[in-house]
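Final report, Chapter 2: Outcomes

The project's central promise was a pipeline that accepts a single protein chain and returns its three-dimensional structure in a standardized token representation, suitable for archiving and comparison. That pipeline is now operational. To close this chapter, we reproduce one record exactly as it appears in the project archive, with the input sequence first and the structure output second.
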Amino acid sequence: MVFQSMWAMQNEQGVLPSSLESQLTKIAEAGFDGITDHFHEPEAARTLSGLASRLGLQIEGQVFPQTVDELQPALDIASHYGCHHLTIQADSRPRTLKEAVILAQGWQRLAEQVDFPVLLETHRYRLTSDLHFTLDLLAELPDLKLLADLSHYVVGREIPLPPGDDDQQQIRQILRNSWGFHGRVASCEQVQVPISFARHKPWVELFSDWWTLGIEDWLGRSAVPGSLSFTCELGPPPYAITDRLGKDITDRWQESLQMKDLARQLWAGCTQHL
């Protein structure tokens, strides 16, 4: 299933250029399966759920807990209104692995209460900011379910092109624990590069290879419930590169459509012989 991020629908000023309903309609008419948005405030969740449901769109909910207990209200909201899955951007930066394990285990226990996946996103300035720290966390909690946004590790660690063998192996370990993806192409110096520029083709190909590995791994897991999600998440500035006037240098909506088609192409390539 391919989702579109509501954050990616914002303009250079960080606001939606038209009403929420019109933006959701645009997304549905473009052929997306769902949307990704914050899903931890009751009134906002009610509004989003009602509009999305009428348009046949699934919801990836996002939540930003700092403690174990702060996840519970979001689980209650998501259980009440329904969602495809809930993604944790853990707004905590523990200095020790022990602290990180306590948080992740607590969220895992709470997630056992609900009938939808709860995934921990790989993201800078979050618990999973550092690739090696996250791999150490997986060694302690091998059943921890991740939502892979690989762009943060590429730019955060300045992974070169082509990546080294160690880099490849470490990314593959992240993919083996991933149950969904946020789609954005990074380079070793920029978190979000225009995918329509020819000079970025090698980076697009690298990410496509990684996403393919992630899809294949997910398909190979026995008795996998639900469906795999891929969110097109081409964010506004400062993620998006701008010109000297602060304007996007590409049409992010058109690139989102391009990424949607790419994700479905990769999925088709992985499933054509099943």
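Archive annotation: Residues 201-220 form the longest helix (20 residues).
This record, like all others produced under the grant, will remain available to the consortium after the project formally closes.
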